[in-house]
What does this fold into?
Amino acid sequence: MKNTWKSGIITLFPGMFPGPLQHSLAGKALDKQIWSLDTFNIRDFSNDKHLKVDDTSYGGGEGLVIRPDVVHDALLCAEENIGSSEQIQFIYTSPRGKPFNQDMAKEWASNKSGIVILCGRYEGIDQRVIDYWSENKNLMEVSIGDFVLSGGETAALTILDACIRLLPGVLKNEKTASIESFELDLLEFSQYTKPCVWQNRVVPEVLRSGDHQKIAAWQKNSAETITKNRRPDLWSKYLIRTNNKNC
Ligand code: SAM
It folds into this structure.
């Protein structure tokens, strides 16, 4: 039987999925059933005759908040259809969440059989259902950056994309992922292709030399310089790790 990695998206806008993920690598992998996608429309779980899912915020304020009972039923339905929190990572996309990173993508792609992502809208979701699922089902609040989106759907697409490309059989050459940015706490070295000269800028000679040792040394140096200049946080991690290794 095929080991399909499952994804479930709880959203008010199911039409946004698979969206960009129906193209290129992720799209081909979806066709090959390397991963699957199910959407759960939050509105389908409303008990209101007008299918209302939100209400005004206690304490005042302009915005609307999505009700806990409706979201709870949507999460239960996703749990029943996608899997329990032992195999599936439950996620709530939120600017208040843990910053998303490559390690999380790796963990979920390799050690979980899928993810369920709850997408917020309006002012967000009633805190009680988030607390209940965090305490009982290991739901993790995850942010994709220090900015506010109008909804969790684009964050969900980002998280899914990062996980899917790490699934076995998605990348043509799986070694690609092992030399990309954030591996070994470094950003990737600079890449070049043809033509050899463009706008008077020449591809570094060493990359055309065929000397694999020199090429590897150049790439390491390029990755280190770029990381040091652009990401002092990553650079410190890299130095600690490499110094410890050398001790
Ligand atoms: N009132 C919220 C706040 O100030 O933290 C923002 C709500 S936002 C307009 C609506 C929804 O978009 C959120 O519930 C969340 O699901 C999603 N969202 C917004 N920014 C996000 C981010 N940086 N990362 C992940 N999800 C985000």
The chain has two domains: 5-164, 180-246.
